[in-house]
Amino acid sequence: MFAARLLNLELVRPSGKRLNTARVSQLDALFVCKLTCDALDQRASRVEVNAKGAKQTPKEEGSLPESAAYRSIVLTSQYASWLFGQLLRLRYSIHAYRPAGFFESNTEHCMILAPTHKTIFDPWLLMISLSFRQFKALAPVRVLATQDPLGPLKWFMPLIKIIYWLGGVIELPPEDQDERSLPEKLRGILVALKHGDVVMIFPEGVLWRRREPPVGKFASGVVYVYRKLGSPIVPIAVWSSRRGWPRRRYAVQLGLPVRIPAELDQEAGAAWLRDCVVTLYEEAKQREER
Question: Residue 231 domain-assigned?
Fold first, then answer.
């Protein structure tokens, strides 16, 4: 299992027998990921020694755990967002399709949600497409978001910053910042995963409103995060009807967790993941257009 290899762990069943990783299914990957969350958390807080022999503290690495008080604020805010987000059903007719047995456990951790991006309301629409029990199993969900919105939204950035803070959003570095390397942009996401959170990354990186192709090009960031920690990626396709009144159809098709083939580089891995999402998109489209 990729997570086991990453952490050099030997996985055993309660009976004491060693787990045969060759027979572990995709859903088993989530189970294994839960077992390794504590180890990831310990790894995040461990003091490491760099090549020169100098010690780096967790604070210097950006992996200092958040306070319990702030995490309580984030959880409360996300529960309230799920509740008040139901008002979006007045405008959207929302349907979610997921594999049988998926999101059925009481807690889900260390996962990367990778949905397509159709509207600025996607983070709320995706969460309210789940029942409260399913959403509670995932929360808190840490969303990667921009600090440089386009159009009129940039004038509301001070308000958006407050919403980001309350919801536990992980912000990308500003575009005018000199240091915008991939490790720098995704440091917050890696820290959240190491501490056991579920994260949401929109691989397209922009709102994709074109009908053809229905899914935009995927950036390699999600592959970078996967390769760093081995957390399973949940591909998610969003299909929406053309603008209608009074309600617009919005369908969410979730796939089983996937592992990107090791032989693919980051760009090829992103293209492979996009193909998975395109397949899910076609499934959602066929369901909704029957």
Answer: yes
